[in-house]
Amino acid sequence: MIALAAALLAGCSVPPPELGVAPDVQVHQEDALRLIAIGDTGEDNASRRLVAEAAAKVCAERGCDLLLLLGDNLYPLGLSADDDPRFDAVMVGYEAVGVPVYGVMGNHDYGKGRDLEAAAHQLAWASAHPLLTMPTPAYRFRAGPAELFALDTTRAFWGDPTPQADWLREGLEASSARWRVVLGHHPYRSNGTHGNAGAYEGLAWAPYASGEGLERLFEGALCGRADLYLSGHDHNRQWLEACGVQLIVSGAGSKTTPITDRGNQTRFAEASEGLVWVELGAQMTVAFYDQRGALELEGVR
Fold first, then answer.
1. Residues 151, 188: contact at Cβ < 8 Å?
2. Which 8-state DSSP code applies to residue 150?
3. CB under 8 Å to 10, separation ≥6 — which residues?
4. CATH superfamily label, 29-300
5. Each residue of 60-89: pLDDT tens digit?
6. Region of residue 144 (left: phi > 0; alpha: psi -120 to 50; beta: else)
7. DSSP class of residue 232?
8. Which of 119, 159, 157 is nearest to 137 (CA)?
9. Every domain of the chain and the residues it spans
10. Adjacent-strand bridge partners of 101
């Protein structure tokens, strides 16, 4: 409710994020990318540590090239300094996965919503630590047969989404990659507490709080252009499809919130901690694992 009040009173204006390029990721098999995506990992508790261990287990069993952190990397209000030791604590365990870790920031990484200094601290931490790659708030890179576009959905939520929407649309349309993947913190569609962009929290009547700008970004740039969109924000795991894009919500990296009916059909929906493993090769394979590394569902698209 604090964020809602601030949004309604202040107009939610923040400058657009810097758009950058990250180093390409070398894959083990030229024609396939295998990745794990985990969101909302910012609480250093037993569940987070178990999920990190499960990621290492799954990668050892199935192979991995990349680990993606989908935002809200430090609760409750992001980093307070470039060398904030709390961030060291919540990153423990991911080095054991043995692959590059790329990330995006979520709303909690921006403090109470528009704390650009907190976000800058996280970028500075990443620049000083080889474990995490996050060169700019939004960036793109290649990984085998895929090109990945990392969004700063919090900046688009609180400010003008147009710069990122234009960048994403143009990049997806120009990409020659077999697979086009987008990652961000906020979901486009979700059967969770936060729900669907444009009606977040059920507040379709409140343009700023509802994520109306993000809805425009997704529908104007993501839809019909990307193959896969990975997000968190809702603390559960889901597999949905909309506007020709496979939508994965993987926000159960350290805690959970319930599955809620938001009118979306799901192939998988589970309100327990865990992760998702994706292979992009001749086809898209999606596998959901619990916090012990046990397979719950696997499907192809």
1. no
2. E
3. none
4. Metallo-dependent phosphatases (3.60.21.10)
5. 999 999 999 999 999 999 999 999 999 999
6. left
7. -
8. 119
9. 29-300
10. 67, 132
